[in-house]
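Researcher: Batch entry, complex prediction.
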Amino acid sequence: MSARSPRRLSLFLAVLVLTGLIGMLMAKGALDALFFVLASAPLLIGFVCWTLARRRRRAF
Amino acid sequence: MDTIAGSSNRDEALGRMSRWFRFNVWLHRWSSLIATPFFFVLCVTGTILIFHHEIEDLLGTLPEVTVPAGATRAPLAPMLEEAHARAAERKAMYVFWDPDEPERVAIGMGPQGATKFDEVHPSFFNAYTGEYLKSIDFSKTLSGFMLTLHANWFLDLPGQLFGGVIALLVVLSLLSGLVVYAPYVKRIAFGVVRGRPGSRLKQLDLHNLIGVVVLGWAFIVSLTGVFLALASIAIQVWANTELKEMVAKTPPATEAVAAPRPSIDAIVATAQEALPHRELRFITFPGTELSGDRHYTALLYGRSGYDDKLFEIVMIEAATGRITDIRPAPWYLKLIMLSEPLHFGDYGGLPLQLLWFACTWLTMYIVGNGAWLWWTRRSTRRRSTAMAGAQA
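Model: C-alpha cells for the complex:
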C-alpha cells in the first residue's frame, strides 16, 4: 500500500472526520476543535500507519 | 542553448535548495540541542500542571464545598471584613470567581503598599454561604512551585523571557525539522520504522515519525508559550497606555464628593449591570497595577464559545461608584488570553488532558532521541577519523 493509495487516503479522511466530530463535542469553540483535530488526527494516523506498516513487514 | 540554460538553472536551483536544506539541518540541530535541557524541565513541569486540578483535589489543597439547594450568592462585604480580620497586615487586592469552581470565591490579600499581585495569598470563601474556607500561599503548594518553575524559573521577568526564548527555539526547531523531513518522507512510506531495536536507523525513523505526528500540537503549544512569556510585558504596556488613559478620564476632584464610599457589593452590581450579557469574574481594588489609585477595574467575560476566554474592562470610580469607562481588551491581551487554553489544554476535560500528556511525553522522547542521534553520529565520525588517521 503506497502513501498515495485510495485506502490510505480514505483512512486519513476517516480519522479527520472522527477527530473533528470528537473535537466539536469536547471543545468550547471552533478554534479549540480545530486544534484538537490538529493534535489528535496526526497522532492517530501515525499510530494506524505504523501498525499497518509493521504488519505488512511481518507478512513478508 | 535552451537545454544548456535550463540545465544551468536547474543546477543553480539545486545548489540553492541544498544550501537552504543544509541551513535547516544546522538550525534544527542547534536550536534543538540548546533547548533540550530546559525543554525537558518545561515538559516535566507542564505534565504535572496539566493535572493540577486533580493533584490539588488529591492533596486537599482546597476544602470541598457544598452548596445548599436554591442558594444565591452571599454578599461580599462580610467576607471582605473577615479576610481583613484574618490578615490585618494585608490589604484586599482583588476578588476572583473561578468559572470552573463557582462555589468558591477568592479574595486576594497582598502586602500593604504592594501594587503587583506577586505576593498575594488568596482567602477562599463559600460563595453561597459566605463561610471562610482557607487562606493559601500558592508558592508553597506543589502546583504553585511547578507553575513558577515552568513560567519564570523563579527569576520573575528575566525568567519569563528566558522561557520565551526556549519556546522560540523549539518553534524554530520544528519548522526547520519540517524542511529536513520533506525529502525523507518521499523515500519511505509513512509509518514505516526500519532497523533493529536500539539501532540508529530505527531511532531515526521513530524520530521522524513521532516528530511529524506531534508537530501540529508542539508548534501551537510552543508558539502560545512564546506569547505567554510576553504576558507581563503586555500587561505593563496596557497599564502604561490604555489604563492611564482610562484613569485620566476621571478628574481627581470627584473623589471628595461622595461619602461614604460605595460598598464592594454595590461596585460588583454596577459592573455586572454595565454588561449584563457578560459574567463578572475578576475585580481589582484601587491601588493595584491594574486599577490605578482611584478606581476598581472589573473584567467581564463572555458566556459562551471563545468569548468565554475574552474580557471587557469596566472602570468604576471608587469614591462615587460611577462607571467611568468601558472598553474591550486590546488585541495583544486578547492574543495572550486565547493562548492560555491552547497552551494548557484545559478546555476539554480528562480526554484532552490525556492527549496533552501523551503529546508532551512523545515530544520529550523525540527531543531525547534527537540528542542521542546527534551524539552517536558525532562519536561514529570521531572513531572513523581516528581510524583513517591510524591507517595513514
